[in-house]
Amino acid sequence: MSRPASPLTPNTVAIARLLLKGPTWGYAAHQDTGLSTSAAYLVLERLKTWGWAIVTIQTGDGPPRRVYTLTRLGRRRVAESLRLTVEYTR
Predict the structure, then answer these.
(1) pTM of the model
(2) What is the pLDDT of residues 7-43, one digit of tens each?
């Protein structure tokens, strides 16, 4: 688990805010944020690498989905980082 040394990028902020509302998968994150699919997946995987999100596989109608959910650490770090980002941009 690592922590970013600087405020989060705008793409990471967009995905982090979305995940604070609840679990999501890559394509839904792309649709909800307006980011490209590759940018959405990159951020989701980065959050997973940092230990801020976990992935579960959702099966049912259609192909399986990799669903991302913030961990307890992730919720705390996102909240801290969003405060830093707001302070940084003032």
Answers:
(1) 0.83
(2) 688 899 899 999 999 999 999 999 999 999 999 999 9
- DSSP three-state, residue 44: helix
* CA–CA dist 78, 13 (Å, integer): 8
CATH number for the domain formed by residue range(s) 10-89: 1.10.10.10
Q: Rounded to an integer, what is the distance from CA 8 to the centroid of its chain?
A: 11
Amino acid at site 75: R
Angle ∠(17,73,68) on CA atoms, nearest 5: 55
Hey, where are the domains in the chain?
10-89
Strands 53-58 and 65-70: what pairing? antiparallel
